[in-house]
Amino acid sequence: MSQFVINLIFVGASFALYFGIAIWARAGSTKEFYVAGGGVHPVLNGMATAADWMSAASFISMAGLLAMTGYGASAYLMGWTGGYVLLALLLAPYLRKFGKFTVPDFIGDRFYSRTARLVAVACLLIASTTYVIGQMTGAGVAFSRFLEVSNTTGLLIAAVVVLFYAVLGGMKGITYTQVAQYVVLIIAYTIPAVFISFNLTGNPIPPLGLFGTDTASGVPLLQKLDLLVTDLGFAAYTADVPNKLNMFLFTLSLMIGTAGLPHVIIRFFTVPKVSDARSSAGWALVFIALLYTTAPAVGSMARINLINTVYPNGVKEQPLSYEARPEWMKNWETTGLLKFEDKNSDGHIQYYNDKSATFEATASERGWQGNELTVNNDILVLANPEIANLPGWVVGLIAAGGLAAALSTAAGLLLAISSAVSHDLIKKTLKPDISEKGELMAARVSMTLAIVVATWLGINPPGFAAQVVALAFGIAAASIFPALMMGIFSKRINSAGATAGMLVGLISTCVYIFLYMGWFFIPGTNNFENVEANWLFGISPLSFGAVGAILNFVVAFVVSSAGKAPPQDVQDLVESVRYPRGAGQAIDH
């Protein structure tokens, strides 16, 4: 049986399961569409939250970043996991007690302002749409390889699939679909990791294998990887980062951005009680940890396997002949995500850091005229089983897992976008007398438009999946998180302060990002080249969300101090929300 047929079986079977669940759990009311009726079991909600959380960036791109960047990419691990702890402890139970469907609903009522609600809607739409671009990019990568089509075609297929079950089922359908997707993605991620860890180190537990000994050379695995990459002109895999301020701000941006992401927050409204919100957060952290403790091993072992493929006899010997390249390279070349350019016309694949001054003399002596192999970070996890010569069914399994990761988060984000438009913009602001049927239709139409925009931007994304997702986290960090924190823990912040803070945080962060990444992420419209020499105080656009959040807090407190205190009933509401006990079902409208 060919690999293509095996892939079709695994991917087709998983999609049949998702579609079946979507049809079974079709939403018939706005409450089912927004919060799955409010009766999801905490363990199931924890599993669905983990799937919602572990996006294409976690499954596909994060290990690729770790593989190519090493220690510097650990900020993604620290930021994303640390942020979830913040969300579980500081936001989830309090927002659940407040009982509204959406984040703009909380901000609109807490800050007693239509303007604040509209600004929150804008912040949510910008952050969520940016995040969806990353998911569609990841889904396009997976579809293009495993269905053997172009990247653009893969992206379009992903859009149609996620649109079907997200629009049909709403939160009810998405919740139970995400439970199934979590099972698929965690099995798909860990089984290949177990095989690869055992092959390289003799230890079947990947996190332990990472700190074990390479069986082929008898040296510690990380030490071997350091030797391999430095011999090819790259920085040592375990080397420290030179710009610690940027790494700190980037980690902080990811943490508070995580805690401000609306598609995760909305999951805590799907459980019956506040205690269930805390419980489901705990379960989600357990489910998330299974993947996040495995990712560093997957990344480092993928880098070793890639180098060993190109240099089968060692990095100081003749590299692989292009004609003798393995089948997995041929497969990924058809997607355009792996490219070979024979710069010295010798028929061999030279893979090294051609920007390294220390390696320049060595390359010249060997007759090399530049790096000839370009590998997209996003393909490494998906290609890992093929690189390691694992059985065909493992390749098919990881195909299904990669797609599950991308589609589960895309569905959650689309729901957050549609809820903001139909519930907060139309129902709460523009047309309060809209019927429930009309609101449900508006939610589905807005979800459709969102997926069209995300697909269009995903065809020419501003970076690979994890980079685009980091931008979304920065926007959420600068705009949504401070408003939620001040809304819960400060009775003095008034509507003018909250609105001004959100606007300053959002605008400053977006402008800084657009200056380097292109205005509205349109390629070629950036004002400055996105390199460290051009960054303000050495702060990357990916890290600026933390600065935007600080500006948000400062402006909100200054403006609020100069104005009137919030009405007494609002202060009493804040006092009540601080004690999560006693909350009932999520409030409808």
UniProtKB/TrEMBL annotation:
Lineage of producing organism: Bacteria, Pseudomonadati, Pseudomonadota, Betaproteobacteria, Neisseriales
MF (Gene Ontology): symporter activity
Compartment(s): Membrane
UniProt keyword terms in alphabetical order: Cell membrane, Ion transport, Membrane, Sodium, Sodium transport, Symport, Transmembrane, Transmembrane helix, Transport
Name of the featured protein: Cation acetate symporter
Residues that span the membrane, as ranges: 6-25, 77-95, 116-134, 146-167, 179-200, 247-269, 281-302, 393-421, 441-459, 465-489, 501-522, 534-559
GO aspect biological process, one term: sodium ion transport
Family, similarity comment: Belongs to the sodium:solute symporter (SSF) (TC 2.A.21) family.
Topology with respect to the bilayer: Multi-pass membrane protein
GO cellular component: plasma membrane
Any Pfam family matching the protein: SSF
Source taxon at top rank: Bacteria
